[in-house]
Amino acid sequence: MSSVAQQETSNRAAIQVRDLFAAYGETVVLSRVNLDIQQGQLVTLVGPNGAGKSTLFKVLVGILQPVAGEVSVLAQSPGEARARGLIAYMPQEEQIDWDFPVSVHDVVMSARYGRMRSEGGWRRFLPPRLAGSDHRRAVREALRAVNMSEYADRPISALSGGQKKRTLLARSLAQDAAILLLDEPLAGVDRASEDLIMQVLHRVRDEGRTILTVTHDLISARTHADHVVLINHTVVGSGTRDEMLTDEMIARTAAARWVPGSARRLTPTQG
User: Fold this and answer.
1) CA distance 179 to 176
2) Is 29 helix (H, G, I), strand (E, B) or coil?
3) Helical (H) or strand (E) element with 165
């Protein structure tokens, strides 16, 4: 992590969520979510399909506005943290148009656009291919970290499943953000890609960055997570992997009763 990012994040909680409600249209998906994530952890969110894990990520990155409640990312609003490049988001593979005619290098370089714009002056008007040396170096290092350097000029439509995941991870790394939100980073990858991705995430965590992942792979969570959050439309439990990934807690999460509610019944004061 750069010295600027380190100064921005020192002595701050990574993420704080208080009485969060989130909805799509009139249907509430997350209800009274409370969460505290400290910096420098590899945190895994576990829950059944449709439990609201990806929705929580969209709230944390500022894509989806909550119906009620408070969200703080490095003591800022999600939108502010995202605008300042402090939080990087890797969506699920299915949300990307892999037929778009763009190279692996260009996808990873797109992570630097925010920093290019923030430089001010005439440089912010330069096309990406004329990006400064710092940006080009960040892209090279990110591609090298995930063993994708030799595929830099390959169109993304020609990538395998594991290569797609590694490209998206490289994009998140190139942003040099303090917090990484990775939605299903291990889904659909082979064992070699899984091992590589986890090695990269451990290294990034050891550098002081905070990583939140969504996974259905309990074996991976039991092996790698520092902290586990169990979610089924609300937080069922939050703690160490030994505390959370017991048969009892997994069963409790799966059995958590959820009746979708209407957003019209909520007001900001109800939080």
Assistant:
1) 9
2) strand
3) helix 161-174
